[in-house]
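Subject: Histidine kinase/HSP90-like ATPase domain-containing protein

B.,
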Amino acid sequence: MRDDAVRLNISFRPHTRRVAQLRHIAGALLTEGGIGRDVVETVQLLVSEIVTNAVVHGCGDRVRFSVSYDRSGNGNSAGDVLIEVDDGHPARIKVRSAESDDETGRGMFLVNALARAWGRHGTRTWCTVATGEAS
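Prediction pasted inline below.
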């Protein structure tokens, strides 16, 4: 089944188990919407990275997450999957290069490398992943 638009919005209490759950849900939603496997895997990796950042570094008792895709272009750019995470923390995010023996610190480096675009507005981090489709 190929839908013109898919969207998921969810708010949750910060906990590391949510990372795998959202990764799975986003993948299932996009696969059902007709998105190709390679794109879905990239989206799942980026969901993991920015949700982990929100859970670990955010503040507040809720994290808000959304993933959307609109083939028609009536929302985010046609052909892009949009991932958004609001962690309640107004701090700037830095892309850094982790050392080879560091166990953490590669999240935003991966987002920067794999996303078409990304940014931070207030307490919300967003990124887009191209599907290769255009309206």
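The beta strands are 5-12, 63-70, 80-86, 117-121, 124-130.

T.
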